[in-house]
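User: What would this chain look like folded?
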Amino acid sequence: MSDFDNKGYEEEVKAFSNEDPEENMEKNDSEKGNDSALEEMKSEEKKSDEKKESEYEDVCFICRRPESKTGKMFKLPNNISVCNDCMHKTMDTVSQFDYQGMLNNTNLNGELDKLNKGKGIPNISFVNLADLQGDGGIPNKQKLKKKKPREVVEPVLDIKNIPAPHKIKAQLDEYVVGQEKAKKIISVAVYNHYKRVFTGMMDEIEIEKSNILMLGPTGSGKTYLVKTLARLLDVPLAITDATSLTEAGYIGDDIESVVSKLLAAADNEVERAERGIIFIDEIDKIAKKKNTTSRDVSGESVQQGMLKLLEGAEVEVPVGANSKNAMVPLTTMNTKNILFICGGAFPDLEEIIKQRLNKRTSIGYTAELKDKYDKDKNILSKVTVEDIKKFGMIPEFIGRLPIICTLEGLSKEMLVKILKEPKNAILKQYQKLLELDEVKLEFDEGALEAIAEKAMEKDTGARALRAIIEDFMLDIMYEIPKDDNIGRVTITREYIESTGGPIIDIRSNSLELPDNLNVIEQ
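Assistant: Here's the prediction, encoded as C-alpha cells.
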C-alpha cells in the first residue's frame, strides 16, 4: 500500500510541475473570485434578514415591553434585546454581591470547565445561549410592526371615496333577506365610522362614536349580518363572544381579550386596530344573575369592566395571545375610536315588554286582553331602556350603547326568500354540490313552503332550515352517485311531508320506466 501511495504522490507532483504557472495564477484568481461572490451573497442574505427583522420592533427579553415604550435597547448575542431599565436593575442587583470573587475573576470560564471535568460539581453543565432557537425567544407574530414614517404632507381625504350608506346596504341586500331597518342603522353607523376615522378633527368639533345594541330572536341574522359586513369592509373587524368573559383574576378570558382579537385582525398594527369594529355576540348572557348569593364574576362584573372599553380608554393588550402572562409582550391601545356592536337574543325580554304593555285592567269597556301581544312576532320592536334595565343590564352599560336596533322575527315568506334569494343561499349550495355529479337539482314552490312551515314549528329561526334540508337530502345524495343515468331531481312537497318521493329524470330512453320517472330528451 505504501509503494502505491508514493507512486500516486509522484504523479501528482509531475502533473503540477508540467502545468503553466500563468494557468495556476488564473485558477487561483477564479477561486478568489468565487470566494468573493459567496461572501457577497452571504452579505446580501444578511442584509435581507436585517430588513425582515427591521419590520418589527425589538422586545425586551425580561419585561416584554416593545421598543416604542422602552426606547433604545442593549443588544446581546442570539438577537436578545434588553431595555435600559432592566439592564440597570440587573447590574445593580449583581453589583451588591461579590459571589466569592467571581466577578473579579477573569479566568472564570476556565475554572468552571475544571470543575465540570473534576469532582467539584458533578453532572452539571451550563446553558449556551446560542443553542436557544428563535430570536430572543419571541416569535414575530408576538412583535409589533414598526410604525412607518409619516409624510410631511398628508393627503387630503376625498369624501367621495367613502362608501355611502346606500352602497353598504345594497351590498348587504345581496346576502341578507329582510331586516331593512337594521341594515340601514348599521350602514349609517359604519359610514359615520369611516368619516370619523379619516377626518379626525374638523373645525375643532370632534365626532364621537355611537355604539349599537342589536336585539333579535334567535336565528334572525344578527351574527350573520355582522359577518357579512366583515367581508365587505376594509376596516379590521373582530367577532367575539361574551359568554367566555369573566372578571379579571378568574378562569376565563379577560375583558381586554376582545381588543386583542381586533389587534390580531389588524396584523398587530396598533393604529389600524384603533379604527376598527368589534362585534360582541351573546351580550345578554352577562346580565345580572337573579336570586344569587355568590359573586357574579360572569355577569354584572363583566358589564362594569366593559364600561371603560365602550366609552374609550387606554388598555394594556397582549400581542399575539389572548391572555396576559410573563412570556407575552404588551402594548397600549386606545378604544376611543373603536366602534362596538353588541348583539343578543334576550330570550325573556318579551315577557317583560308584555308586562309593561298590559298595565290596563282587564275589566270594563277599555279593557285589553292579556293575550293581546302573545302572537306578536315583532314584540321586541316595542322595547325601551327600562325593559333592558329590568332584564339585568346595568344603567351605565346601556348608556354607552345609545343606538338600540331590533331585528324582526322571521315569517314564512321571509324563510322562503332566505332559501333561494341570497347569493350563497342554502338551495344554491346543494345545487352546486349536485352539479359536480352532473345532476340538476330543482325545488317546487310547494316544497319551499313545506320547509318554511317545518322551520316555523321549530322556532329557531333560519338555523332550522339547514337541519331540515340535511334530513331529506341525505338519501338523495347517497343514491345519486350510484346511477350515472340520473340527470335531474325535483324535490316536491309530498317528499318533504313524507307522503311521496322526488321526481327523478333520466338522460336516456328505456323500454320500461318506473313510477315518477321522466325522460330528458338529448
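Residues 21-54 form the longest helix (34 residues). If you want, I can go into more detail on any region.
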